[in-house]
Amino acid sequence: MLGARFEAEIREQPAAWRRVADSDAAVRLATALAGRDVLFLGSGSSLGVGMLGALALRRRGVRAWALAATEARFDRAAYREACVVALSQSGRSTDLLAALDLLAPAPVVVALTNDLDSPLAARADVAIDVQAGPEVAVPASKSVTTTAAIVLWAAALAGGATHRNATSLRATADDVAAWLAAGEGVAAIAAAGADLAGRRALAVVGAGYGVPIAYEVALKIKESSYVHAEGFAAGEFRHGSSAILDASSAIVGIVDDPSRAVVARPLEEALAGGAARYVIGAPCGAVPLLGPQTAEPFNTLAWLVAGQLLALQIGRANGVDSDAPRGLRKFVL
Q1: Which pLDDT score is estimated for 331?
Q2: By three-state DSSP, how is residue 276 classified?
Q3: Beta carbons of 112 and 124 less than 8 angstroms apart
Q4: Are 260 and 210 in contact (CB under 8 A)?
Q5: For the segment 68-94, what is each residue's pLDDT rounded down to a tens digit?
């Protein structure tokens, strides 16, 4: 079946989150970040996770940013004193390693990677295994959500919060595993994927934590299905970009209780143009809801799983083997 490896790795994620829950990864990261400004550095999905982590830290009063590795040569002067958290599934991205050269000497370099034998891990002061296990499909899944779990948990620890912990992470793993096993929700995503496969363009919108998730879901759709998708902050989408929506396009909202009012407005306005509408996360009026439900501490992981499955199913409907999309490889030389 097309994308068989990608689907298998999506389904392996709850087990990977349990490994994170059993590890000291979040504590080690929080310890390394203590008392410092923080710069998350990455490319592609890793950059999206860095944006999520930076937002979580800023919410707790920590000065934190996320920077694309390829932009370090143009935008680095302000980060000289920041702890650098370098994110890479493979630990071998030449873009990321070159960015570390440009940011040197950083006071502390932390590597979050799926390979502790990688060049990135060797260069770091602190190297942390993200516990994803082997990941073969080109679109990253397990490494994205395990890294997200670690950075969110570490940010909570940095701010003295206790709601993100091993118990709440295991509960999310249980909720998502049960949803995957039941099958009805996956079937609903397959039906949505078939609907979206023929669309000219997809807008994925969110607010708060939903913004980096929207960027990541749009990236997954592009690389897994070849359908043009773009992530937006929901409020900003209404300032010009909403003109792209008509009956040939679609909008997917990333929704939780704090963001519902912001995300609901472009979803409501899309109805007039006849665009297809779906939401991931929490209910939003009469818009069809996709994906598993879980409690707030790690609900972003459930959103990512839904987005990954949606990308897979759009790809299948378009005859794309998302295990190995054209023109892409697992890491960039």
Answers
A1: 63
A2: strand
A3: no
A4: no
A5: 999 999 999 999 899 999 999 999 999
